[in-house]
Specification:
334 residues
């Protein structure tokens, strides 16, 4: 705008009467002779100075008026930046959740599991009925809390995220199935009572996994699948307490036999699952994850009268939080 005003003032000065009168007195070359403009009419083939000057001034004014303003005078408007999250880097954190699994168990030696857990079941002392007091197959639901730590590394390729993660968790998963039966035999002069208690406990002490991850990132969200190896320590306890009491009119005599057996075993298997992560800042990430762990089968208490084969597998749902250690500044894209 300042340049356009300057060109307008310059045009007025160049077309003023005083300047034009001076221009008329200038010598003009028409052919081979120089003549004064004042009082003399120039021939048609000569140069019309007034028109020439006017046209030149007009073109100059038009050019300067159309010249763009300087960059400093033009306001610059930018669109608001779009935050671009990066998932690349090392991370570590903690998690907590709940686990459940049906550990199908089979007693290979005898009927070790009470059919009806809880208070004693009173049965007459005969073979057919006694056999119905216990069974050789049960499917206990081994449930409980889990909590632990995890660490890993992500590599991002545009929207794809590839990673490797390891974790270790302590477990409160356990299930007990206890029961007892009372067998009574009446004779003419005495009564024989046999109380047999069966106590069974299944437990997962800890587990750990090392897994690959493959996910799709969209800004601050990441959806991923995961799978790899798993290892865990399972435990099975069995205790039988048998008490026989012989009672007659004069005396009562009792005898108790307790058999307590326990075994812990570390088993390897596989894990698979998936989850969703949400970035709340350049460094802090929240997650919700499902994981299935299968440690196969194991026969506990081998070479005893209480050999028991157990299927070891779990479903885990847990939430966690991670810290991205080497996260750079969040990129801004316009």
């Amino acid at each position: 705008m300042r340049l356009a005003s300057s060109s307008t003032r310059l045009t007025r000065r160049l077309t003023s009467p005083t300047l034009l009168s001076r221009i008329k007195r200038l010598p003009v070359f028409c052919g081979q002779k120089a003549k004064r403009i004042e009082g003399v009419s120039l021939p048609n083939r000569g140069l019309d100075v007034k028109k020439f000057i006017s046209v030149g001034i007009g073109l100059f004014a038009l050019a300067t008026a159309r010249e763009p303003a300087s960059a400093a005078d033009i306001p610059v408007y930018k669109a608001p930046p779009v935050t671009v999250w990066t998932w690349d880097g090392w991370y570590g954190g903690g998690n907590v959740g709940y686990s459940w699994g049906r550990w199908d168990s089979t007693s290979l030696s005898n009927d070790s599991f009470p059919v009806t857990p809880g208070p004693p079941t009173v049965l007459p002392l005969n073979a057919s009925t006694a056999a119905g007091a216990t069974t050789n197959r049960v499917d206990p639901d081994v449930n409980g809390w889990v909590g632990g730590v995890h660490a890993g590394r992500n590599w991002q390729f545009q929207n794809f995220v590839v990673g490797l993660e390891g974790d270790f968790s302590w477990s409160g998963e356990r299930r007990s199935r206890d029961g007892s039966q009372v067998f009574t035999l009446f004779t003419v002069n005495s009564t024989l009572t046999l109380v047999e208690a069966e106590l069974n406990t299944w437990k997962l002490d800890w587990f750990s996994t090392i897994r690959g991850r493959l996910g799709w990132a969209h800004d601050s969200w990441l959806v991923y699948g995961t799978g790899g190896a798993a290892v865990g320590r399972a435990k099975y306890d069995h205790t039988t307490i048998s008490t026989a009491t012989l009672t007659n009119a004069q005396t009562s005599t009792s005898a108790t036999v307790t058999t307590a057996l326990s075994e812990s075993e570390t088993k390897w298997g596989y894990s698979a699952g998936g989850g969703i992560e949400k970035a709340f800042s350049p460094n802090w990430i929240g997650r919700v994850e499902y994981l299935y762990i299968d440690l196969g089968h194991h026969t506990f208490l081998q070479n005893t009268d209480f050999e028991t084969r157990v299927r070891l597998h779990d479903n885990i749902v847990r939430g966690g939080i991670s810290y991205l250690f080497n996260a750079g500044p969040v990129a801004a894209r316009y």
